[in-house]
Amino acid sequence: MTYRVIALDLDGTLLDRQKHILPESLAVLATARAQGVKVIVVTGRHHVAIHPFYQALQLDTPAICCNGTYLYDYQARKVMTSDPLDKVKAKKVVDLLEHHGIHGLLYVDDAMLYQNLNGHVSRSIVWGENLPEGQRPNIVKVDSLRDAADNAQSIWKFATSHEDLNALRAFAKQVEDDVGLACEWSWHDQVDVAKHGNSKGRRLQEWVESQGMSMADVIAFGDNYNDLSMLENVGLGVAMGNADDAIKQRAALVIADNEHPGIAQVIREKVLR
User: Residue 66 and residue 112: Cα distance in Å, rounded?
Assistant: First the structure.
């Protein structure tokens, strides 16, 4: 099988623990692009938080952001297609966050907003402060997430996290049952809330077919539950060695963890001519 598209999750997959792309991955992806293979980033991140990676990869493809909520044209700096959250439902999520004592980030328009600090928010801020000015994500403190949701043009998702996993599960269940939104685990202690029906796999399929190809032409790499919609629906779905066993069992291939050049090895064997 000849794969014409490489789809890449970022955190836990293309990125190592220090949020860097391995040099082996950079080299092999550049070779693949030179041979006409399309390389596309498929991430849970906001587009304002992919600048260093997009620039390092020198891609000309759009980015699939916020678990498939929207497709972002990096060169033109604009959203191409999207399915944002309804504001009424978003404010109900804010109410549930306050009820359960859970904090996180609200992804809107061109910014990531927070009302209260927690570990996830603090780590995001520190990561951004260590980047060159032109690559820093727009992370903004607001007095009220409820008001921020009202004032936003587009609400992409909530990225919530909590040390008490039982509280996080209870929150996620209530969001799904009472608000009718989708909750996806993007890390062991992080739940993303978005419009029901959005997924990495769905948005990837839309883009691939717009390019005159099918999902059978795609090799995809991921490590978490929000990656399953693409891993299970492409020509070859590859799980990282650091993924949960449940993810590995549902992937066609399992490789080394994100600290080792497994991605580069697979691309050399399965993609390059």
Answer: 11
Q: Which residues are catalytic?
A: 9
- 103 lies in the same domain as 180: yes
pLDDT tens string 109-133: 999 999 998 888 899 999 999 999 9
Burial class (CB in 10 A: 0-12, 13-18, 19+), 245: exposed
| Tokens of residue 165, six digits | 């996993």
Containing domain of residue 100, as a range?
87-194
* Structural domains of the chain, count: 2
- pLDDT tens for 194-210 read 999 999 999 999 999 99
- Calpha distance 216→5 (Å, rounded): 9
Domain at 260, CATH number: 3.40.50.1000
Shared domain for 72 and 164, answered yes or no, is no
Query: Which of 236, 268, 242, 246 lies closest to 255 in space, CA to CA?
Result: 242
- Predicted model pTM: 0.96
The β-bridge relationship of strands 190-194 and 218-222 is unpaired
- Domain check: are 106 and 176 in the same one? yes
**R_g over Cα of the chain:** 18
- The phi-psi region of residue 78 (left if phi > 0; otherwise alpha if psi is between -120 and 50; otherwise beta) is beta
And the tokens for 33?
A: 């692009």
